[in-house]
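Task: sequence in, structure out. Protein: Aldose 1-epimerase.
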Amino acid sequence: MEAVFWPEAGGRMLRLRHIDHGDLLVPLEERSIDLENWPKAGAFPLFPFHNRLQGAAFPHEGRLIRLRPNSGNGMDVMHGPAHRRPWVTSDMGGDFLEMRLEYRADDSWPFDFTAIQRFELHGNNLSVALRLTNTGGAAMPCGMGWHPYFRSCSRKRIRTNACRQWKLAGGSDLPEQLARHAGTGEVAIESGQTLHFSDWTEAAALVGDGASMRITADTGMSHLVIHLKGDYLCIEPASHVAGAFADLPNASSDFGLRILAPGDSLSGTFRVDVESPPPGSDLSG
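Result:
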């Protein structure tokens, strides 16, 4: 496999290509993009939280922290500010690249932090390591994730070994409570739908022209978001459940949120493997 990156555009991966299957991600062709209205292509980092933070505000240590909204409805915050800031290449070699962001508190996030993404390519395997460090002087609630836009395959076969799936709140795409995940591992999803899972280690799908893609969570990424829409499929490893900031003082351990003391770090790793499915198979494994 080969990958193309654009650190200055929010630490993005523009393309992920396989020698036999071509583009696995929806390729991001633009060389000038609006980071406030990001294109649904490539892949980008999710720091210091992922998905929707409702009302652009959350309680923390006895006060209400308000953020600058950036969602289409003008009321919420989506995916954290890191993918809307320029990153720098901090290290690179023939088969790896590391990007770094030194974030300074502003109206999008009132805490200092350092975020690192490290990508390594080996044959049909992409390894990803994420790290978030609180570099400020106060405790910081946080999480992280990775948001790829895979090319959707005409054969919508998706599997995960997740133990639990979150039920959605009425009229919302955000989770409300946990339920035991039943069934054989097949994920039933319709276009425009978002599903949330916990306690998983593997998720697999056919992407692009039929490549069998598998994501394996190694450490620190116990939550999973699957979103399907039009020509793209998002399978997003994350450290916490979406919407977890809404009731931060009462958040349970199931939510996955961390409160990092100054100097403390949060890390996570996962792999993306690609292979050709056996003849006559909809999905390997």
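Residues 280-285 have pLDDT under 50 and may be disordered.
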